[in-house]
Amino acid sequence: MADDTIHAAGCVLWRRSPVGSGLEICLVHRPKYDDWSHPKGKLKRGEDSLTGALREVGEETGYGAAPGAVLPTLRYLVGDRPKEVRYWAAEAADGHFTPNDEVDRVLWLSPVAARHRLTQPRDRDLVDALLDALHLP
């Protein structure tokens, strides 16, 4: 039987807060699903996961990203197909968000606010994983 797993990748994109000493996490709003999530997307044929994750961050947020620690891989069903999404921590580099058909809004939020805004509970664990990777409380 062929592997019908949907392979995707993304990043928990973060930056140092422009005000204060904390950090902020970038969340994207996808109008098609009316949800808030971390930037992610399906891999192109033959594309490695990290390349795909950084491409998706750029496409969805307009920001470059410096990849860091590997974060947990999420596995779940989409319809009746398994989906596997590999994640990395990534510090935001230069960029500017421009709304598009796929993502109409981005928010930079504190980790606590990001946890509350994320639509899927499974995405909240990635916030904790990022803080652990950065050795932050």
Short recap of the structure:
The protein has helices spanning 49-61, 111-117, 121-133, and strands at 6-16, 23-30, 35-37, 40-42, 63-78, 81-95, 105-109. The model has no long low-confidence stretch (mean pLDDT 95).
Task: Write up this protein.
This protein is of the alpha+beta class. It has one domain: Nucleoside Triphosphate Pyrophosphohydrolase (Alpha-Beta Complex), CATH 3.90.79.10. Helices cover 24% and strands 45% of the residues. The chain has helices at residues 49-61, 111-117, 121-133, and strands at residues 6-16, 23-30, 35-37, 40-42, 63-78, 81-95, 105-109. The chain starts with 5 loop residues before the first strand and ends with a helix. The model has no long low-confidence stretch (mean pLDDT 95).
